[in-house]
Target: CRP/FNR family transcriptional regulator
Amino acid sequence: MLNELCLPVGMSHNDVIKLDELIKERIRLSKGSALFHLGDHAEAIYAIRSGSIKTQLEDATGQVQITGFLLPGELIGMDGLLNYEQTSHAIALEDSEVCVMRLEDMDRLSMHMPSLQQQFRRLMSKEINRSHRLVMSLGSLRSEQRLAAFLLNLSHRLSALGYSSTDFILRMSREEIGNYLGLTLETVSRLFSRFAREGLIRIQQREIKLLDYQALQALSGSDCGD
Amino acid sequence: MLNELCLPVGMSHNDVIKLDELIKERIRLSKGSALFHLGDHAEAIYAIRSGSIKTQLEDATGQVQITGFLLPGELIGMDGLLNYEQTSHAIALEDSEVCVMRLEDMDRLSMHMPSLQQQFRRLMSKEINRSHRLVMSLGSLRSEQRLAAFLLNLSHRLSALGYSSTDFILRMSREEIGNYLGLTLETVSRLFSRFAREGLIRIQQREIKLLDYQALQALSGSDCGD
DNA sequence: CGCATCGTTGACATAACTCAACGGCTGTGG
DNA sequence: CCACAGCCGTTGAGTTATGTCAACGATGCG
Model:
């Protein structure tokens, strides 16, 4: 059952071994299906083993806001721990697999392993930082800067997983990118076209190639996030 | 040294007693001074005892994004736990006092008290949710909705502290409100004027009175957050 | 192979920004 | 305690980035 792909990128091997003890179950998700919905009882957090998953809030009026596109090694469900009730939906962007880490197992294990809870505290802090950077992007950047930063951020994370940092597939639609970045799908589409015209990227449907990394960094404000 | 005002609102009395053991030190901050700066070593988190504090990110270009206005009972510094280095600035909006909770004390105590770490996990989850709601506000709402939601959120939190939910003082400038909401100070000023003209609020400088709570809720999309 | 979804592009509308001028607090130092 | 300076807030006029509506083309799923 143990598998390094379940583990948050950047963990020491020591911590990996501890976390592996937590993972007793995996869940397969087909494209478009939900790992959990808003309101579900939250009794575990999930590490993506393969695939990709979006998380989205939904308010009383049905308005949706995507808060993240998660890749292998990243964790989902930490926003549900406040009242052990999910506050967002988690939906697979492609066929995916996640590892389940039950809270009760975590609590039991961390009693004897202080480093586990410290590690988990760091991961929750990371999630807070991720969200804060998104706030900064939405609050302070113009559309072209947001999209450039988004592409660089994806590139960075895929690269850390051993994939190409310049050639990858966007697993989400223009509408989903727009929702995430606080833009309309038309604006996203136009920006992709413009970036391509200006030689920054090449794009064909969801296949993207970053041609001028530096120019994208300059555009985004050199803040590629993580 | 023990004081209930240091404690996150909504905690059980039992947990309060535990947390009180953590608080060995308090810090007084005069208006405009910083509790910590970006890059500072993070070895504690802080609970506001009195006053109010803003937290803000700052990117390489000096661009600032305010991510929160914190009130008594609320916690600061959870975003710095990733690498034990602050990722934001925390600046007092008025003369304030905070309680210091050292990480090493927390780790020591929580070893014998599983409920402490569970409690802390919940508080970090709450911070993630807070940030997610801000993302939703910035990504999905129009300016008038953002400001209405902001006022209702403040009202809600002040009310939980025992203050009036309809009459209060804005401790932050128009510019700070605008920065937080992804708007310019002029837009904020115009919206206040318009809300007043329409009978939703009365405002004189930083003194505000909410006259039509329901209309504000309808405007904001009934999402007053927390 | 056909239909539904997704993506592109254009024309137009508008919410929010920018720049500018001015008035009123507030707090400080003489 | 008063006068002044600097900041803060308001308001207006004009601009612009981004949204809206609409038509069409491309993909890929069933």
Summary: The CA atoms of residues 22 and 145 of chain A lie 40 Å apart. The mean pLDDT of chain A is 89. The two ends of chain A are 28 Å apart (CA to CA).
